[in-house]
Amino acid sequence: MDRVTRAAVDAAVAAGASYADARFIETRTERVRVKNGAGEALVANTDRGLGVRVIADGAWGFAGTSETGDDTVRDAARRAVDLARAAATTVDEPVRLAPVEPIVDEVPARFDIDPDDVPIEGRLALLMECDRLMRAEGVGIATGYVSVLRRRQHFASSEGAAILIERIETGGGLAAMAVADGCACRRSWPSSHGGQVMTRGWEVIDEIALPEHAARIAAEARQLLDAPCCPSGTMDVILAGGQLALQLHESCGHPIELDRVLGTEASYAGMSFLTPEKLGSFRYGSEIVNITADATLPGGLGSFPYDDEGVPAQRSWIVREGIFTGYLTSRETAARLGLPASNGCMRADGWARLPLIRMTNVNLEPGDTSREEIIATTERGILLEDNLSWSIDDRRLNFQFGCECGRLIEDGELTHLVRHPTYTGITPEFWGACDAIADRESWRVWGIPNCGKGEPGQTAHVGHGVSAARFRNVRVGVVEDE
Amino acid sequence: MSDALIMGRDEALGMCERVLAASTAEQTEVNLIAGRSGLTRFANNHIHQNVAEANVEVMVRAAVGSRVGVASTNDTSEAGLADVAARAALLASLSTPDDLFPGLPEAGEEPPALRGSPATAAFGPAERAGAVRACIAVARERGQVASGACSASVAAHAVANSLGVRAWQESTRANLRMVFTGADSSGFAEVTTADARTIDAASLASVAGDKCARAAAPTAVEPGRWDVILEPAASANLLSFLAMSAFNGLACAEGRSPLCGRMGERVCGENISLHDDGLDPRGLPVAFDSEGVPRRRVELLVEGVAANVVHDSRTAAMSGARSTGHASGPGSSSGPTPGNLFMGTGAASVAEMIAATERGLLVTRFHYANLVDPARAIFTAMTRDGTFLIEGGEIVVGVRNLRVTENMLEALDRVAMVGRDATLAQGVFAPPLLVRDFRFSGATEF
After folding, report:
1. How much is the average pLDDT of A61-67?
2. What is the pLDDT of residue B356?
3. Comparing A28-32, A82-86, A144-148, B1-5, which segment has the lowest mean pLDDT?
4. In this structure, what are the phi and psi dihedrals at residue A112, rounded to the nearest 5 degrees?
5. pLDDT at A482 over 80
6. Which range marks the domain in which residue B127 is found?
């Protein structure tokens, strides 16, 4: 059992906490970034610290410290109790927690190729080769990056849990930008938000085959400079890969966070249109739309063995045959909704932050049509790839996305590229217009390493399993007046 | 310095000196940030989150020739400092030459040692809870629900490099933000200040409560082009996104800025002037950047004419300019961005703007703004927490929220009135603006 976390929990209980948990986290990250033929950033960070969370007088308190000497740990625990008591002066109903079996466990990281076996020189050489291939196509700005995160997290609670989790995240990607005459067009591989990141080893980098795609994306970036702008109007839209992942993230993943639904993000990130009376009856999407939250997916960036409350990872239904059926929960919010237990979605951005409800891997389950068949059966539409911009209202209804690249479809055939495509919609109308979802052949779990939420700000690493999907009669080309 | 709020100059620079002494690189730069912060969050008329944290982070940039490596740690033991110095030097030795690396800045005049507010540093859980209780009391009195956050932080920042640069400053920041909600409406108010004593929670709560009440029973209006009054939180949001895309020295050097090749041209209305000033006490003062270079006042827009962009030492070298002290941090790839924006004020009050509007909208603030096409200065955002219809020079009713998709420079070319009462919002000291034909591209359901 970890000395630091146990000492923190004991000190908090001694100071009057009715419940306490503590996380002691050590993190090491390495980033290599190459830009236009130079090692722009070789970065190695280490970070360690302790976070103590308590309930005292029926309210929450939290304190984080980077110092972990005996006295500092006791001080942090007492400070957390003091903070809880200050909060309690406004609380009418004391916090209640749904039950969880206290777990004692140690879980090692999973990987095939240890990233430490790939030296910095090798990582740099890979990116320099990609950089050469991109710039040979004449783009003005070529960037490539790989990153590795290693984390050891000890968790202990006053209920008797003691869990050690080791985690490795590996990721990388490329971006090529062509610039001319006040126009800048970017193409990315394998996606635009941090490339691909997974809870696996260096095999992730091998699988995304960066050099094989470097010249293609650079050539596309240049072609986009001469491509026409996205037409304005209504047409069928097919979302592919990373863009479908982000659509799911913003319009489903966030509105199912039960803390947001219950109002605790109201002043900042906002609330949710998926209010509790809709649970089990509201039509979120068409009958082919099935969405799960699955923290058990091997390699998913939103996968983990236990959440930051010590609740085991789970797979649960969010939308089944188009009907909204489930939330992402914590122990506290599960109890408030009268659920028997949390489905294990509490995670914090390191030791200095309080756990919040965060997405795990929120997935659009695959359909039964091939991606090629979806394109072939689209009379007039647009295939949209890789996100460029994103925005959604504070209840997650009106969204607008911009993409790096659009490919027009006419009579079932991909025709030509369009520049800076945008589309907009209202969440349940949009998912209600989903009439085709590609099969497992094109289904991938995408990592999103920059999901923001909370105050103080927190960044979560989450995942989305998606293939491709078609949506009928979507408004596109919203930058210009129609 | 014995009266330091968190870590004095001697202690902070002493730690930096130990890293410099341990480094084997040809050039070494050390950034040290010691921070302590607390935040009280409330929702549904009670505090649901009350947190505090303390940390010291040391970031080292090492150069061997034009090869650069960066390492960081929060282990400030002797071994930890020696290790971070060694890791940065090792990474530099492994890197490839970067022809655009100009070397670390040379020593010049040491920037002023700004001091923080002791009152803010002492603004603890009891003080934050007191401010929150004042907000909740106003909300309960009106039958509304209060949500928000009250925070206070103190930080010491030191920079030292092997060429003799030495810089140290303190900063403090306090913020109280709230949203009051009713059955079908919401209202917003916020204050950000270096001195927590200036926070008047009850007055702010009244603003949020009044907006919420006035926005009740909102009506739907059609998107399209509307004359619009942007209150300071909204205009600040627009200006911060413009700054990000347009006045970034790296974006300009790489041809990605909408102002590329347009310096000296009129790019928006003559009533628009914008500058960046780290030392203006109306903002959140910053005396130097992560390279230890003094932050200079930079005129960005002068009566509608594009005047300058901001630089770090790298983009300055790329552009044949000198650094303006806007480096964004070791290892960052985002380029220098203005962080202390001030827009020139006009003569009109918001009441006068409303009176001058025959038919238009008033926007309290934006939500989830983002750049759609940075090179063309196009941004999108939703309105929230108080959007109103104006008819015949009066606010007549709240309206359901709308989406904006607009060219920021073109919007600033259609500003009919600039307000006189600027406030600090999101780091931008911004006045309200009356903009003609502002483009709303869509609407939502509430």
Report:
1. 96
2. 97
3. B1-5
4. -95, -45
5. no
6. 9-201
B212: in domain: no
Give the pair of three-digit tokens for residue A423.
Answer: 């589309």
Cβ of A90 under 8 Å from any chain B Cβ?
yes
Closest residue in B to A141 (Cα) is: B254
The ipTM, to two decimals, is 0.96
| The predicted structure's pLDDT at residue B1 | 47
Residue B342 has pLDDT above 70, yes or no: yes
| B263 and B363 housed in the same domain | yes
Task: Please give the C-alpha separations between residue B445 and each of A210, B217, B219, B228, in angstroms, as whole numbers.
Answer: 43, 13, 10, 20
Sequence-ordered list of residues with C-beta below 8 angstroms from that of A38, at least 6 positions apart, any chain: B96, B97, B98, B99, B100, B101
HSE value, Cβ hemisphere, 13 Å, CA-based, for A105: 13
Asked whether B272 and B243 are in contact (CB, 8 A), the reply is no
Report all structural domains of chain A as residue ranges with CATH numbers, in order of start. 3-226 (3.30.2290.10), 233-476 (no CATH)
User: Is A90 a residue whose pLDDT tops 80?
Assistant: yes
Residues B187 and B316 in one domain: no
Looking at the structure, tell me whether residues B325 and B300 fall in a common domain: yes
Based on the structure, what is the number of domains in chain B? 2
Task: Tell me, yes or no, whether B434 and B292 share the same domain.
Answer: yes
Contact call for residues A226 and A456 (beta carbons, < 8 A): no
Q: Same domain for B125 and B260?
A: no
Same structural domain for residues B311 and B178?
no
pLDDT band (50, 70, 90) for residue A77? very high
pLDDT band, very low/low/confident/very high, at B2 (cuts 50, 70, 90): low
What tokens appear for A159 in the block?
Answer: 């209920």
Residue B159: predicted pLDDT: 98
Q: At what angle do helices A70-88 and A3-14 cross, to 10 degrees?
A: 40
The pair of three-digit structure tokens given for residue A190, joined into one six-digit string: 């394998």
In a domain, B286, yes or no: yes
From B201, B232, B247, the end of a domain falls on B201
- Is B209 inside any structural domain? no
Which pLDDT belongs to residue B157? 98
For chain B, positions 373-432, list CB contacts with chain A under 8 A.
Answer: 373-376, 378, 380-382, 384, 401, 403, 405
Kindly tell me if the per-residue pLDDT of A481 is higher than 80: no
**CATH classification at residue B40:** 3.30.2290.10
Give A43's DSSP letter: E
Region A163-174: mean pLDDT is 98
A318-374: pLDDT as tens digits: 999 999 999 999 999 999 999 999 999 999 999 999 999 999 999 999 999 999 999
Residue B158 lies in a domain: yes
CB B190, CB B204: distance < 8 Å: yes
Q: Give the per-residue pLDDT at A92.
A: 87
Whether residue B136 is found in the same domain as residue B275: no
Tell me: do B117 and B21 sit in the same domain.
yes
Q: What percent helix, strand, coil does chain B show, rounded to 5?
A: 25, 40, 35
What is the nearest CA distance from B346 to chain A, expressed in angstroms? 30
- Give percent of chain A with pLDDT exceeding 90: 97
Domain end call among B136, B169, B201: B201
Question: What is the rounded distance in angstroms from the CA atom of residue B380 to the CA atom of residue B404?
Answer: 5
Give the separation between CA A366 and CA A290, rounded to whole angstroms. 8
Lowest mean pLDDT: which of A180-184, A235-239, B134-138, B267-271?
Answer: A180-184
Confidence check: pLDDT of A1 > 60: no
In the block, tokens 């209780």 appear at B133
Residues 323-352 of A with CB under 8 A from B: 352
A42 CA: distance to closest CA in chain B (Å)? 5
Partner B, chain A 233-292, Cβ-Cβ below 8 Å? 262-268, 270, 273
